[in-house]
Design brief:
Elements: E1 15-16, E2 28-29, E3 32-36, E4 40-44, E5 53-58, E6 62-68, E7 73-78, E8 84-88, E9 92-93, E10 101-103, E11 107-110, E12 122-125, E13 129-130, E14 132-136, E15 139-142, E16 147-149, E17 153-155, H1 163-168, E18 180-181, E19 184-185, H2 187-197, H3 206-212, E20 215-216, E21 230-233, E22 236-240, E23 245-250, E24 255-260, H4 261-270, E25 275-280
Parallel strand pairs: 1-2
Antiparallel strand pairs: 3-6, 3-9, 4-5, 6-7, 7-8, 10-13, 10-17, 11-12, 14-15, 15-16, 18-19, 20-25, 21-22, 21-25, 22-23, 23-24
Length: 282
């Protein structure tokens, strides 16, 4: 992945200072750390609202910004998985506190006070990060003054026991290229969110995941799938639920679905895309 533009904050006119001597650029800058202040923020290939959605940044995530175009866009690198792209400047703020908790459910509401009868002020999605300052009854009170249901939050180091069970919660979620939430998700975003929820580091895209995760099974070993096995095609990834079924976000159904493994492999092969690898996390 050396010099992969998805992971390398370098352009001809500017690059991150830590890349000096490794890449060519007109100038090198140290960058400035910011925090994602909005619930779900697009990271795009170019500084335009109609540019390709490459991934999404979640509230509380850190990002190092190297350039601003003066037209509402900032270019930087996400701290979580190293992805590089353009974000709306309006979604950034200087970090004031360190996150203490993360959202552990698909979605939850933030209320302006300690009552579920109040109109919510925000909708937050899984893996968003917040600073909890206090508790009031069943609510956690955040640094924004929001009140969230305490049962929807976990400490940063409290992880799900079964990442496949996390993925299964997304069944029915609409497919969205570059999406990373229960409002819309793609295949590698589903795998990344599920593994991160279980405390397992995971890169963003399926080719990166194939390169970096697990050990590859031989054709003989791949005859018996186990829960948690990763099945890769060019540009696609699915999670085995058991010996017979997979869960994956896919454009065929335009949703996250559970399918029979052999039938899905045959369907995808008929479209000209054969399995490229089966990896096992151990």
């Amino acid at each position: 992945m050396d010099d992969d533009p998805r992971l390398t904050p370098a352009r001809g006119d500017i690059a991150a200072k830590y890349l000096q001597g490794k890449v060519k650029a007109a100038r090198f800058v140290a960058g400035e750390e910011f925090e994602i202040s909005q619930p779900l923020v697009p990271l795009r290939r170019a500084p335009s609202p109609d540019a390709e959605l490459m991934t999404q940044a979640l509230k509380g995530e850190r990002v190092t910004i190297y350039d601003r175009n003066g037209e509402g866009w900032a270019w930087g690198q996400l701290g979580s998985d190293g992805y590089v792209g353009w974000l709306p400047d309006s979604a950034l703020r200087k970090p004031a506190t360190s996150p203490t908790h993360r959202i552990t459910v698909l979605r939850t509401f933030a209320f302006p006070g300690p009552s579920i009868k109040l109109p919510p002020v925000e909708t937050l999605t899984m893996e968003a990060r917040l600073t909890v300052l206090d508790e009031e009854g069943p609510f956690a009170v955040t640094s924004e003054g929001w009140y969230l249901p305490g049962q929807h939050l976990g400490l940063l180091d409290s992880y799900a026991a079964d990442f496949v069970a996390v993925a299964e919660q997304f069944v029915g979620t609409p497919y969205l290229w570059g999406g990373k939430s229960s409002l819309g998700i793609d295949c590698s975003g589903l795998v990344q969110l599920s593994l991160v929820a279980a405390g397992i580091r995971c890169p963003r895209d399926s080719d990166m995941q194939q390169d970096e995760l697990g050990r590859e099974l031989s054709p003989q070993g791949a005859k018996e799938f186990r829960r948690g096995d990763l099945i890769f095609w060019k540009g696609h990834v699915a999670l085995a639920r058991d010996t017979q079924t997979i869960v994956h976000a896919n454009a065929h159904h335009m949703a996250t679905t559970i399918e029979n493994t052999r039938e899905a492999i045959a369907r995808i092969a008929a479209a000209g895309n054969e399995v490229t690898a089966i990896k096992r996390l151990e």
